[in-house]
Design brief:
Helix content is 28%, strand content 24%. With 243 residues, the chain is of the alpha/beta class. The termini are far apart.
């Protein structure tokens, strides 16, 4: 059998990993992935062949997974969150496009937008947009347009990859753009290291968010015009009580 599982590990904490993910890992002979995410499951993969590669080597990683599968080894490609939300599912399908004989099974995981929202309260109860600030693969002009249009449409906005050493001011710039259409006092929140050691949750205003210190392991939540703080929780009402 030629098979690749593409597995979303969720936040990384074992209790938030699906049974399907655990079963796929157990069934696999080879585990591939970014080292940080493979390390989250080291105790589950003893005795298995493991291949890791660095950031920006995603295509190489997928080609190796394909090679293992073509050799008849059931292989897992693991990533954090959900494999289909800024994960590896799409690139695995693209790399394997000339090999329809390889069965690809995507195993869903809890994305950071969902796990982070749960930590803060209920900010995603109404319509929302998810936008990454990483411009490695997407031009900044397009990212800025998406931020402006989502803000003008009054979406709650969840932001991935808000900052790095090379992009230290990106969140600040994003907040300034969103404040063209959102009130500076809009309730916001952010969570670092969701579901892992060192988890931190903060609720603030959009104006305060512009000065927050965040990193690549932080997920940002920017409210809409109805979002409020209720007993320390960030909540976006859907309108049930207004009916």
């Amino acid at each position: 059998m030629k098979k690749i599982f593409v597995i979303g590990l969720g936040p990384g904490e074992r209790s938030q990993m699906s049974g399907a993910a655990l079963a796929a890992i157990a069934e696999s002979e080879v585990i591939t992935g970014y080292p940080v995410y493979v390390d989250l499951i080291r105790d589950l993969i003893e005795g298995k062949e493991v291949y890791t590669s660095a950031m920006k080597q995603e295509v190489d990683r997928c080609q190796k997974a394909m090679d293992y599968a073509l050799a008849g080894k059931t292989t897992s490609m693991v990533c954090s969150g959900d494999a289909g939300v800024y994960g590896m599912a799409g690139i695995v399908c693209e790399v394997c496009k000339d090999h329809p004989e390889i069965e690809i099974e995507v195993v869903a995981g809890i994305s950071a937008c969902c796990s982070g929202a749960a930590v803060l309260g209920a900010p995603l109860i109404h319509d929302f947009a998810v936008i990454s600030l990483s411009d490695l693969l997407t031009p900044m002009e397009k990212i800025e347009k998406r931020l402006l249009l989502a803000s003008e449409a009054d979406f709650v906005i969840c932001i991935y990859n808000p900052s790095s050493k090379k992009r230290a001011d990106y969140l600040h710039r994003a907040c300034l753009l969103m404040m063209r259409h959102k009130d500076p006092q809009t309730p916001c929140g952010y969570v670092k290291n969701i579901g892992r050691s060192g988890e931190e949750a903060h609720i603030c205003t959009l104006k305060e968010l512009a000065e927050a210190e965040v990193d690549m392991f932080t997920t940002i939540f920017v409210g809409n015009s109805q979002t409020k703080v209720i007993n320390g929780r960030l909540v976006t009402p859907r309108g049930y009580l207004e009916q």
